[in-house]
Design brief:
The protein has eight helices and six strands, in the order H-H-H-E-E-E-H-E-H-H-H-H-E-E. By secondary structure, the chain is of the alpha/beta class. It has a six-stranded mixed β-sheet.
Amino acid sequence: MDMLILRNFIRNHATAGFHKSLRNVKDEWRILRIHRRNLKLAVDFAVMDNLRLHLGCGNRIKSKWVNIDLFSSAADLNLDLREPLPFRTDSVSVIYSEHFLEHLVYPEEVSKFLSECIRILKPKGLFSVGVPDTESCCRNYLNKNEEAFRIAREKGWHPQRCNTLMHQVNYHFRQGEEHQYAYDFQTLAQVLAEAGFENICRRQWSAEYDSPQWEVEGTLYADAYKPV
């Protein structure tokens, strides 16, 4: 009965901001339970060597990789990538991540994530990353490039309600509340260098690694390596 009274009080008297905070707590509790359950499943992978990790895989599964995503039912592991990675130091040969890094808060979550990546990578191990190309987005806005934004809507990168250039810029930066940081190559390279990576270079879209939907425009790709 006390809980019913509390729920009714919150429903009738709490502010919208308070309701949002409660939803966030509920979401984080769900994430915690998923993460802890999958830490047990990760034990079988953690003892392996020369692993290739696909982080933030969504439903795009790579054969002969360990595919990791918090909510994807297709992934091998559902882990909260804001937390320490359950793999041995110097045990991973390649880490790949596409359209995930921008979902982490900079600098706290990004620094922690990259620190874990460089820890588990073997010396000379590859970290290959793709993020939304914010430099291209800004250039398209300044040049009033309606065609580029039309393509973004047609491919489903932006919702149809983004019917002005600024609506589309806002969606690029925020994607609702999911995007936490925006990158151009200069910024991405600096962030990777600060984490300890070297030989950082921008690369073109690759059929071997990257999603077909990003072959046209919209993604900034970079490779970086763990020092010897």
